[in-house]
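pasting input
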Amino acid sequence: MAEDKNNVKIGVYVCHCGSNIAGTVDVEELTRFAQEQTAVAVARNYKFMCSEPGQALIKKDIEELGLNRVVVASCSPRMHEPTFRHVCEDAGLNPYQLDMCNIREQCSWVHKDGATEKAKALVRAAASRAYYLEPLETRRVPVTPAVLVVGGGIAGIQAALKIADGGRKVYLVEREPSIGGHMIQLDKTFPTLDCSACITTPKMAAANAHPNIELMTYSEVVNVQGYVGNFKATIRRKPRYVDESLCTGCGVCQEKCPWKTESEFDCGLGPRKAIYTPFPQAVPNVPVIDPELCVYIQKDGKCGACLKFCERGAVDFSQTEKMVEVEVGAIIVATGYDLMDPSAISRLGYKRFPNVITSMEFERLCNATGPTGGHITVDGREPKSVAIIHCVGSRDQKYHTYCSRVCCMYALKFAHLIQEKVEDAKVYQFYIDMRCYGKGYEEFYQRAASEGITFIRGKPSQVTDLAMSEEEKGKLVVVCENTLVGRPLRVPVDTVILCPAMEARSDAKEVARLFNLSQSADGFLMERHAKLEPVATANDGVFIVGCAQGPKDIPDTVAQALAGAAEALALIDAGTVKLEAATATVSEALCHGCGRCEEICEFHAPTIVRRNGNPIPVSSINQAMCKGCGACAAACPTGAISIKHFTRQQILAELEALSGVPV
Amino acid sequence: MNVNGFEPKIVAFTCNWCSYAAADLAGTSRIHYPPNVRIIRVMCSGMVDPIYVLKAFEAGFDGVLVAGCHIGDCHYISGNVKAQDRIEKLRRVLHTLGLEDERLKLEWISAAEGGGFAETVKEHVGQLKELGPSPFRKETTP
């Protein structure tokens, strides 16, 4: 039954937000103004509306004054709309009877003169829209109690393990042949100098063995459909050409395979075969065959050494790519980062001089399982002097303005390891600022500093092999200004280690599209709120953890991974999820069944149906599939489609109030 | 023509996911811009019915800004493409009404582009000051 508009009672609540709003907008005047608006029964202001007493104020008015509309003039609805919707609900008012009026982000923080006048217009507009708001029914649908975790680095592994321990099914998808990510490539980890493999491999093994985790390596998510609580993901499983159920991981195939290339895992510093596991501790310990390199595949059956020597008959060239569909309630994106290729900064000599290496290459060289068995050997010899250059591509206007957050610490670790392994080694740190902010980090800095490292504050302008003195002959020379003494400096060394920026994955854009996420200006995936929603995203039910969101060290990555697991568990353990209530509806009296809505909807929500006894077909909108985007409503030639909570009447009322004249 | 003291009135239809968030980011980053703009939040730029734009001009706004996600980044896949098509068609109607092209602005502003939002508003205010008041403008309260 239509509401009698004479009974509309609006309460307007103006928030001071401390001085954030009240410092710029005259909140008393704004409250008086609000009080004069049509159907406004009460207008009040308070220091912090979102606080407990602020909320109580609103609740009390709803209950005692019988308010049936609430307007909160405060911060962005993206910040506190859920808060105030709860307040309304608690007091027995439909949560969609609330309108937020953004007088902070879009008024007091961006204007000085005219802020109060603008706030008045915004409040008037919100009250006008509120007048036409209608109660909406939130529907709940069951949640699929399973989680998809995308990326098998330490973030994905930890998230998967925690959810699985919570008793829920997890699909852990990794595009490489093994899980482990960047962390398993590292040698030691700062500040405790734990061996990275020693702390990662047990986690990898646990993920593989967990009855609730279905591990899908060498696989990629290619499509995601559905909505929060009910996603359908399609996963492409690339052919390994090795039967996982038969292979024992004995490694004979890898021994016998005659075809070699550079190992990606060892940063190209060592070889791998055409049939290979990226590293001996790979999980699963089942090799894959590189179809580009395998002569059996490339030359139609010539070779076949692996086939011959595999006693279990696990090699299977008949395998083809498979598409697997999984149904999950939540998705955790843990796709990690790329290390910047420092050859982009050619003056630093990477790829021009064999003894200029990256930090990850050093990790492999230092690692007992690496290509040199842990002996630091660069370009055929053990370096006696090493320059470590920080901030390569980080904190640099030309490349990435952000700080990669881990380089200072691993640079200190490198210095320690070099001095431990190479007798009388000289290590020079070229830094901008030493940033050692974590627990135990400052102490590690003090320790490393006491071990006789030379710190040079300055950003090297170039690395050159042009000797200007006898001492520089046969060396690399790091040219730099020591900014603490304001003097140019030339430091001859045997090896230069560059600390390249951690970058968003080169395919972050595609990942963002696949999961319907946004990217920050730096290319990393964007969280819903920088402080209070660090792992949630704009897409309900999809969470981001680890370096996919921005550069991080291992402790922060793990903390985020566990936060993501908690979010996912909270979502699926609730059993049901609220569906978008602001969906499209059709006035069948106005609809001519032209099918324009059916044509343009990306979500296949509308269909044209014939009603019993009605000669004209009409549009019918599947409410579970409708996302409320409104494309159909704007396209509907007869105005038959309306979007709940964003009706023409509501928007035109807002427009009219903003202009100050009737439309 | 730069009319003395003329302050144009702009209404902006911004999508919830990108450009409304960009306006919020301008706020959290304290990037100031002229208060001439009034924002109406819509879920998607593809939701902006041409009637809203026409009504805005009828109500005396000097300019209308429709802002959405960058092409390819739409939260609803292609709402912004639909908005673009509609706005281009709408321009022809505006021409016949004697409204200049610059009065209706369509911009793609991502959630990361707070500065971009502020710049867009500044630019639009500048353009409208050059053009002067809309022929449909009536004298109104602020």
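fyi Chain B has a mean pLDDT of 92.
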